[in-house]
Amino acid sequence: MNEIERMGDIDEPRLFEEDGVAARVSALIIPLLKPLGFRLVRTKLLGLNGLTLQIMVERTNGTMTIEDCEIVSRAVAPLLDIENVIERKYHLEISSPGIDRLLVRKSDFVHWQGHLAKIETNTVIDGRQKLRGKLKDITQNGFTLNIEKTAHREEINIFISFSNITNAHLILTDELIRDTLKKNKDLDKQLISNDNLKPLKNENKYNT
Q1: How far is Cα 42 from Cα 30, in angstroms, rounded to an integer?
Q2: Which of the pair, 194 or 134, is modelled with greater confidence?
Q3: What strand order describes the sheet that includes 156-161?
Q4: Backbone φ and ψ of 192, nearest 5°
Q5: Residue 60: in which H helix or E strand, if any?
Q6: Half-sphere exposure of 95 (CA within 13 A, CB side)
Q7: Is residue 186 part of a domain?
Q8: Among 124, 131, 191, 196, which residue carries the largest CB count within 10 Å?
């Protein structure tokens, strides 16, 4: 299967991974997440207001509810305590990627093609390593970033390889909010439709 067609594939690899303690945490929890139907977006240690371990997770369809966060927390917290990866007191935070989400897999770029994103790169491109533009023309090896016209320059299109990016996330816009709400609404309809296809249960089955 082509990786840019793997939206919904729980085994699709991330484009970049953590290092240090965060990498050890990721290695521990990924095998726990998969059987539950979740995949890791990012693990990060934050030092504000004490130490916080932030684990960003999603289902393969890109959703993540409060109940899902609770499920993940109950699954990973005991293992982290047993393995004692973090040797000091910390707060565990399980979160969804959010609307202005990180783009960590090739399928993320496909799914959010046409939206505005901020891209950070290993090498200097067009005189900089931080670029802002619309995602387009996603391929197996990379994507084109459409940078709009300004008072100082014309509109340009720059190809960026996936191997060259160090960080990428969507930029919050009205268009992104509308598209996210529409995608969620369409997904809800699909889930309702699937539920309607299930055979009816015998409601008296467990009566005594």
Answers
A1: 11
A2: 134
A3: 156-161, 142-147, 128-136, 116-125, 165-170
A4: -65, -40
A5: none
A6: 16
A7: no
A8: 131
Full domain range(s) for residue 164: 106-170
Same domain assignment for residues 63 and 91: yes
Residue 122 lies inside a defined structural domain of this protein: yes
3 state DSSP class of 144: strand
Grade residue 188 by pLDDT with cuts at 50, 70 and 90.
low
**Report field, pTM of the whole predicted structure over 0.70:** yes
Would residue 75 be called left, alpha or beta, if left means φ above 0 and alpha means ψ between -120 and 50 degrees?
A: alpha
Whether residues 166 and 118 fall in one domain: yes
DSSP 8-class letter at 55: E
Alpha carbons 194 and 105: distance in angstroms, whole number: 27
Quick one: pLDDT band at residue 55, thresholds 50, 70, 90?
Answer: very high
Q: Region 163-183: what's the mean pLDDT?
A: 95
Same domain, 65 and 112: no
Question: How far is CA 139 from its chain centroid?
Answer: 19
* Rounded-to-integer distance, Cα 154 and Cα 185, Å: 37
Residue 144 burial (C-beta neighbours within 10 Å; 0-12, 13-18, 19+): middle
Q: What are phi and psi of 118, to 5 degrees?
A: -105, 125
**Residue 19 tokens, joined:** 């290092």
Identify the domain boundary among 48, 63, 95.
95
> Considering the domain boundaries, does residue 165 fall inside one?
yes
Instruction: Tell whether 82 is covered by a domain.
Output: yes
Same domain, residue pair 18 and 91: yes
